[in-house]
Design goal:
The complex is a heterotetramer. By secondary structure, chain A is α+β, with helices and mostly antiparallel strands. Chain A folds into three domains: about 35-125 and about 200-245 and about 255-285, Aldehyde oxidase/xanthine dehydrogenase, a/b hammerhead (Aldehyde Oxidoreductase, domain 3), CATH 3.90.1170.50; about 290-445 and about 595-735, 2-Layer Sandwich (Aldehyde Oxidoreductase, domain 4); about 445-590, Aldehyde oxidase/xanthine dehydrogenase, molybdopterin binding domain (Aldehyde Oxidoreductase, domain 4, 2-Layer Sandwich), CATH 3.30.365.10. In chain A, about 30% of the residues lie in helices and about 25% in strands. Chain C has helices spanning about 10-15, 30-40, 70-75, 80-85, 85-95, 100, 105-110, 120-125, 225-230, 235-250, 260-280, and strands at about 1-5, 20-25, 45, 55-60, 65, 130-135, 135-140, 145-150, 150-155, 160-165, 175-180, 190-200, 205-215, 220. In chain C, the strands form four sheets. A five-stranded antiparallel beta sheet of chain C has the order 4-5-10-6-7. In chain C, a hairpin with a 2-residue loop joins strand 8 and strand 9 (about 150-155). Chain D is α+β, with helices and mostly antiparallel strands. Chain D folds into two domains: about 5-80, Ubiquitin-like (UB roll); about 90-155, DNA polymerase, domain 1. Chain D contains five helices and five strands; from the N terminus they run E-E-H-E-E-E-H-H-H-H. In chain D, a hairpin with a 2-residue loop joins strand 3 (about 50-55) and strand 4 (about 55-60). The chains are: A alpha+beta, B alpha+beta, C alpha+beta, D alpha+beta.
């Protein structure tokens, strides 16, 4: 399926770039309207407490305060998932974690709003709390919500255990009996935050008549509309949501945290309300990803064949029911062709902020544990880590550990590229180790809407419904131009608000370039069909006798050569006289998103006297199907690698005995800074996805999956001791040296 | 007849049955017949599942065609970041 | 909150003495952060940057006087200062990002009272004197004598530090500062060490000063560590004796930035590494 | 709290504003002068998204009071380059695809410009340390560093 492309694979300047380098781009907190109020949220200082009473009288009496709300202002909703979202935005009855919202104020200025918060009197009765996953699963642990325990589980686990999943095939006992070496290990990983630099921000204006406008930083403004209209009990059609430029999300902006609060305050005050989280609030009250406790058992023959593999994943996902461990259980062994395999997972609630997706949610920690044990087996049996992975690699026709049989996939190609790369044979300095890990992500399709207008001047206006989080307006414009056969700069893609184009799912799951791309191609085909029809009319021949070649209509069949080709611009120029405006649109739910595999290789140096780990060299290989805009594909790979490095080395949510978060700021929640990292070489592998006309696979998430184990394996080789918990911060490393 | 594979923990609702054959032309028909056979599956299927049809992953849209020889794997509804 | 710009130190002292909750503003990189995180403002914020001399680096008796409002970036750009007291300047330059360097001051770092303040061990090792202005007039005290405990100094009521004096550097002398942080930048010291050495004609350590940061309630001199270096050319035995003395001098806390065990272990590592740098700067060869 | 009257210069233009004594320069720029290019990522000087220069000195505008800039000259991202005449740094950031979400980009532009004024030929390591206070969560910094180094090369008159 090798195709020749004119535009795909080139590196044009992204259309929104100019506004972003000049400071013009409007992000969530950048919009203001006259007469707007400023809102602030009061948050619980307790990990778990009954809210006995809230007295807002003094705050309401403060000059300049226009509205104060608490959980009592929100009427119940039917859908339980929406109710949990609502109660995460504003506690009702109980505060479930440090940072849980308990009241909110809208006032004429930020200063007055801040002053008013101090006047709200909340009486709490503290309750027992639990923040560790293993403790939360024990019978007798404080239970966050009654009646939501997974229905197949028994009394051996507490009511916090809201999900149980199992995947796999074969017979584990048989598998392990065939092994020459079996290693069984337990791992722990800390909760980490998406760490987007832009805090959540919105500007809400909701009238008493139920008509509203909402501007917000989100990965999915249709999701925001649906959730908010349900919580506010208004019609979806009456709430128009506009997605601002989004300053990073990585999954963290796939739900709402503040929007219903701002809308409710606006409704109550009768004025627009701007609500912006502080960084401290982002860490305490917006969703990090899960922490985990994991058991892995893998058996291998002396020759390196994996004979059996078992994973038990216990994920901690915060204060409300959630489903995410299944993604880890499905990902854990995806890279391997196994006869006997089982991956089990438990979703567990604790007194922490409700988890939300973080780039390949659930996969990095599961794969970290698996790839650590695979590495240890290779070490013990004296096997080459890449050869061993090649020997066991999943490929086309492999029945995956989670069920489906793989179509064309690029794991073997990525492993072979890694093996052939000069990095793999480069000599290592003292105190330095080289780590390898595979990684995997599913990638998704889902609902999309694209509307494309062919303008009279020969340009194309494209509206789509997915917030552009990493350059998708560029890739979509490129695919439109490729499909139409015109130049890239003739297309302008914008992200429409919820009133201007049909529903679109959230920007997540590495789905946008894939799914919006398919819709764009189909919309282009619809427009092409119409343009061919117009040309046929002009030429007075059958529409079927016209085909679209290189951006122009041309007669075909027995009319071939009768008329010179008529370009898109020419057809567009006369469209007013040939039947009116020309457009194409497509609404659909593309499936068949191809999975993506990556292989990361890292050299780490560990200071034996301090336990400090530095990343000396990093190379990432990833099958992306077809790189539409290779520079942004590289950027996705590099960015995921950097996030994974942070996860491996220094990032963690630190809770004290009191259940309070101790590091809600960038000073002590340590994401990698520029001087922490070397250049990250991204090697793009292209094994086309048979499910996409251009071969595209999602590429945004796979890259965060391998770094955890790659770095951990590198550290193990550098110091000769293996660590079983993340992050591998210097005190932990020095302790084992 | 399509070969239907139920993912591990869902087998708790099929009495441990992992694989079965179901005559269905579309996903809707398949899921209807599946819940008719195993009513305990209703809640899970109602709240949403993903299906892998011959190795390609689909959401549970009703009218996705299923071939007579297809392998259909029922999986949980997947989410991303 | 009121914001006032003091014209001279007498006015600043008078404003500090009004009985209101008053704070001084120089670089603001501590006071403004605290206002933000704690959500409360003092009654009065007194900007001291306009006071004559407060923004100057001047030579004095062969050494340098550094005004209370001189930023880290300005110190880093002062070639002669950097040549004489490279350890002090590198310590100041480690405070925060480039952006923070544009504002943060050494005197502010001192008066903030953090046990982990980067510049304090280096100033102590250099024998720096703080000039204090107060209701009773002006006095000079050793920086070391100003330290009290976390968030506290021994400054009296309505007193302020107007400058710090770094004495003339001796020939064949060198100083250095090192800290341990989990990343390469942007963190607070988990443990740190400043070392100042003077060598004799034989390149043997004649005088030494070793100061540790972030391992006790204040930065602390470690005389035994210094003594271990004196008379040596930093042979391995001297360095390990120095490290052992450092470990013995540690009484750190466990917190989100480091454990007692870890801080105690690496304090000596920082000190011996800093000693080697100082030794080379003094003209010694390792 | 009575407001303070401040006369200053922003991006070459004389500007006057009234601000509360505890109002940061960042809030003044964004809320009073409608210059929203500088972003608040943390409010505590840890992220660099609010970088501006005051009298040529790179600072975090969240850690400066509006009242302090009386008589100063401030430069924000809005004062660097225009659509028709981008600063080479801005152009190289675009050409290297050195931004994804773009929230850190204004701070990077301001900080990198300050670097190149002080050090026209920085090494990769110097560039990384200079920009250590400008957090970027999207890119892994690779393309940002390359863009700054190639802009530096162009500004030095070398063949970029």
């Amino acid at each position: 399926m090798k195709q020749d492309f004119k535009i795909l694979g080139t590196r044009p300047i992204r259309p929104d770039g100019l506004d972003k380098v000049t400071g013009k781009a409007m992000f969530g907190a950048d919009k203001s309207v006259t007469g707007m109020l400023h809102a602030r949220i009061l948050r619980s200082p307790h990990a778990h407490a009954e809210i006995v009473s809230i007295n807002t009288a003094k705050a309401e009496a403060l000059a300049g305060v226009k509205a104060v709300i608490t959980g009592d202002d929100f009427a119940d909703v039917e859908n339980s998932a929406t109710r949990y979202t609502m109660q995460n935005c504003m506690a009702q009855g109980r505060a479930l974690y440090d940072g849980h919202a308990v009241a909110a104020v809208a006032a004429v200025s930020k200063a007055v709003a801040a002053e008013a918060l101090k006047l709200i009197e909340v009486e709490y009765k503290t309750l027992p709390h639990v923040t560790d996953v293993d403790e939360a699963m024990l019978p007798g642990a404080p239970v966050l919500h009654e009646g939501v325990k997974a229905r197949t589980l028994g009394d051996d686990v507490s009511g916090n255990t809201v999900g149980y999943y199992s995947f796999g095939h074969g017979d584990l006992e048989t598998g392990f009996s065939e092994a020459d070496e079996v290693i069984e290990r337990t791992f722990k990983t800390a909760a980490v935050h998406q760490g987007y630099i832009e805090p959540h921000a919105c500007l809400a204006d909701l009238g008493g008549d139920g008509r509203g406008e909402l501007w917000c930083s989100t990965q999915g403004h249709y999701m925001v509309r649906e959730v908010c209209s349900e919580i506010l009990h208004i019609d979806a059609s009456q709430l128009r949501v506009t997605a601002s430029e989004i300053g990073g999300g990585f999954g963290g902006k796939t739900t709402v945290f503040i929007e219903p609060v701002a809308l409710k305050l606006s409704q109550k005050a009768g004025k627009p309300v701007k609500l912006v989280m502080s960084r401290d609030e982002v860490f305490r009250a917006s969703g990090p990803t899960m922490s985990s406790s994991i058991d892995i058992k893998i058996g291998m023959t002396k020759a390196g064949k994996i004979t059996g593999a078992h994973a038990k994943l216990r994920y901690q996902g915060g204060a409300f029911p959630y489903e995410m461990v299944m993604m880890g259980a499905m990902s854990a062994f995806a890279a391997y062709d196994l006869e006997h395999v089982q991956a089990e997972g438990w979703d567990v609630m604790t007194n922490r902020p409700k988890m939300i997706s973080y780039r390949a949610p659930g996969a990095p920690m599961a794969v970290y544990a698996v790839e650590s044990v695979v590495d240890e087996l290779c070490q013990k049996l004296g096997l080459d880590p890449i050869d061993t992975r090649l020997l066991n690699a999943a490929r086309e026709g492999t029945k995956s550990s989670y069920g489906p049989t793989f179509k064309a996939i690029g794991l073997v190609e990525a492993l072979e590229a890694a093996k052939a790369h000069p990095h793999y044979s480069a000599p290592l300095a003292p105190n330095t180790g080289r780590g390898i890990s595979c990684g995997f992500w599913f990638n998704f399709g889902g609902q999309v809407s694209v509307s494309m207008a062919i303008n009279a001047d020969g340009t194309v206006s494209l509206i789509e419904g997915n917030p552009d989080i990493g350059g998708s307006r560029a890739s979509i414009s490129m695919m439109a131009a490729e499909a139409l056969g015109i130049e890239f700069d003739r297309v302008r893609t914008i992200v429409g608000d919820t009133a201007s184009v049909g529903f679109s799912d959230v920007t997540d799951g590495s789905r946008v370039t894939f799914a919006v791309g398919i819709a764009t191609i189909k919309a282009a085909n619809a427009a092409i069909k119409e343009m061919c029809k117009r040309a046929a009319k002009i030429w007075d021949i059958d529409a079927e006798a016209v085909e679209w070649v290189d951006g122009a209509a041309q007669p075909t069949g027995h009319n071939a050569g009768d008329f010179p080709p008529m370009s898109l611009a020419e057809i567009a120029a006369t469209s007013g006289k040939t039947g009116g405006p020309i457009a194409g649109h497509h609404e659909g739910a593309p499936d068949k998103a191809g999975v993506s595999f990556g292989v990361h290789m890292v050299d780490v140096e560990v200071d034996p006297e301090t336990g400090f780990t530095s990343i000396k060299r990093y190379t990432a290989f990833q099958d992306v199907g077809k790189a539409i805009h290779p520079a942004y594909v590289e950027g996705q790979i590099q960015g995921g690698a950097a996030q994974g490095i942070g996860w491996a080395l220094n990032e963690e949510y630190i809770y004290g005995e009191d259940g309070r978060l101790q590091n809600p700021g960038f000073l002590d929640y340590r994401i990698p800074v520029a001087s922490d990292l070397p250049m990250i070489e991204a090697v793009i592998i292209e094994v086309p996805n048979p499910g996409h006309p251009f071969g595209v696979r999602g590429c945004g998430e796979t890259s965060i999956v391998p770094p955890l184990a790659a770095v951990a394996n590198g550290v193990a080789h550098a110091i000769g001791v293996r660590m079983f918990a993340l992050p591998m911060s210097p005190p932990k490393i020095l302790k084992v040296l | 007849m399509a070969r239907v594979v139920i993912f591990g923990s869902l087998r708790a609702f099929t009495g441990g049955v992992e694989m079965m054959e179901i005559e269905a032309a579309t996903t809707r028909e398949l899921l209807k017949k599946l819940t008719a056979r195993y009513p305990a599956l209703f809640d899970t299927i109602e709240s949403g599942v993903s299906l892998a049809i011959d190795g390609e992953v689909f959401k549970d849209a009703w009218f996705t065609p299923i071939g007579p020889e297809s392998e259909v794997v029922i999986m949980p509804l997947m989410v991303g970041g | 909150m009121r914001y006032l710009v003091a014209k001279d130190s007498r006015e600043a002292v008078a404003l500090l003495n009004t009985g209101e909750d008053a704070r001084l503003l120089a670089g603001g990189t501590d006071v403004l952060v605290r206002m933000k995180l704690e959500g409360k403002t003092p009654d009065l914020l007194i900007d001291i940057k306009e006071i004559s001399g407060f923004s100057d680096i001047t030579t004095e008796n062969g050494g340098f006087r550094i005004g209370a409002a001189v930023s880290g970036a300005e110190m880093g750009e002062h070639a002669a200062l950097k040549a004489m007291w490279p350890g002090v300047v590198e310590a100041v330059e480690l405070i925060g990002s480039t952006q923070v360097q544009g504002r943060a001051t050494m005197v502010g770092n001192l008066c903030n009272g953090s046990p982990a303040a980067d510049s304090v061990p280096a100033m102590m090792a250099a024998g720096a004197m703080a000039r204090i202005e107060g209701p009773a007039g002006t006095r000079d005290v050793l920086v070391a004598d100003l330290l009290e405990g976390p968030g506290k100094t021994k400054l009296g009521k309505a007193e302020l530090v107007s400058s710090v004096f770094l004495p003339a550097g001796l020939p064949k002398a060198g100083d250095a500062y090192l800290r341990f942080i989990p990343r390469t930048e942007m963190d607070i010291a988990v443990a740190s060490a400043a070392v100042s050495l003077v060598l004799d004609d034989n390149n043997t350590v004649a005088e030494a000063s070793v100061v540790l940061g972030a391992v006790a309630r204040t930065a602390v001199f470690v005389p035994n560590a210094a003594a271990a270096l004196v008379g040596s050319k930093l042979e391995p035995e001297a360095l390990s004796a120095c490290a052992a003395a450092c470990a013995a001098a540690c009484s750190p806390i466990d917190d989100r930035r480091g454990t007692i065990e870890f801080r105690t272990k690496i304090a000596g590592v920082m000190a011996t590494r800093a000693a080697k740098i100082a030794f080379r700067r003094a003209g010694g060869k390792l | 709290m009575s407001k303070i009257h401040v006369t200053t210069q922003v991006n070459g233009d004389a500007v006057e504003f009234l601000c509360a004594p505890d109002e940061t320069l960042l809030d003044v720029l964004r809320d009073r002068l409608n210059l929203t290019g500088a972003k608040e990522g943390c409010g505590t000087g840890d992220c660099g998204a609010c970088s501006v220069t005051i009298d040529g000195r790179l600072v975090a505008s969240c850690l400066v009071l509006g009242a302090e800039v009386e008589g100063s000259a401030i430069e924000t991202v809005e004062g660097i380059g225009t659509a028709d005449a981008l600063h080479p740094l801005q152009r190289h950031l675009l050409e290297h695809a050195a931004l994804q979400c773009g929230i850190c980009t204004p701070g990077i532009v301001v900080a990198a410009k300050a670097l190149l004024l002080q050090n026209p030929d920085p090494s990769e390591e110097e560039t990384r340390y200079w920009l250590a206070g400008n957090l970027c969560r999207c890119t892994g910094y690779d393309k940002i560093i390359r863009a700054v180094l190639s802009a530096a090369s162009e500004l030095r008159g070398e063949n970029a």
